[in-house]
Model the fold of this input.
Amino acid sequence: MTEVLLAVGTQKGLFLGRSSDRAGWKFTGPHFAMNAVYSVAVDRRGGRVRLLVGADSSHWGPSVWWSDDLGGNWQEPARPAVRFPERTGASLERVWQLRPAGEESPGVVYAGTQPAALFRSDDRGESFSLVESLWDHPQRSEWNAGFGGQGLHTVLTDPRDAQALTVAVSTGGVYRTKDGGATWTPSNSGIRAEFLPDHYPEFGQCVHKVARDAADPDRLYLQNHGGVYRSDDDGLSWTDVGAGLPAVFGFGLATHPRDGGTAYLFPLDADYARLPVDNRCRIFRTRDAGTSWQPLSAGLPEEPHYGVVLRDALCTDDADPAGVYFGNRNGEVYGSADEGDTWTQIASHLPDVLCVRAAALV
Done:
């Protein structure tokens, strides 16, 4: 049976779980104790597993670490892996996202940061360089900061084209490149920004997360500050698919690893409560690309619940059937080994859960 790795980044370190049946889990940690871990990536390219972690120490500052033995040993470069050039006048506050590219770009890893910027590594995450074309984009100076700061929190590669990349910034919106980052185009047509005088601006939307459909690479799903959207043309235009959800505010968003049209959300009451809708712990799933949504709660807490799921704290693995996982700010982690139909609590009493990543170890 396939073994699954579950990485849980928290406000005070990283916890690594492994399971051969996704029923019983053995955890180690905290790795990077007293570090806030906002980003984790599992890079399995080339038949080698490398874990990448964006750890943020209040004393030493943020850094990127890696392990080639599933967390037994960790390495950090002598010189900061992610570092803004002096001419920018900026300094790294946080690594929001670590995203290995596909097999078509061996060695390439992207990092999204706060302040909002994109970095690229060509050595599997050991060193990064600023993608200066996005930093120098004429619209960047008009990006604002969301409630949690200004971060580039989503990086999507395209399995068909190594030169294509989609990123999302809070609050800047979605930007796309088709030429390897030489030029960038805002791609927010149809996304509403309720908080701006022009409700449908070219950029400036507070995008919370974007995910790509497994079967149709042109189909994207987007959780905005006040809406849930789908694109069928790789982000050129967006359609509201929030009908049927109890709320369209939220952070976490994930797609099924194989089944087209299947995505998962954790809705929250907006805008000032930011708690689970009706104080109920429920994941919502669509199997028809957002045309309809089904609440999933079998095995989840039935009593009033106040755990908030953050933007990278909801994910799927790529086992069969697919597993779905989420962690919350109550320090709880829940998992489903049957694509969301039933759930069990995997961990509890952890520090605030900031991100969750899962992958089958093959």
Q: What stands out?
A: The mean pLDDT is 95. The helical segments are 132-135. The two ends are 10 Å apart (CA to CA). The chain has one helix and 27 strands.
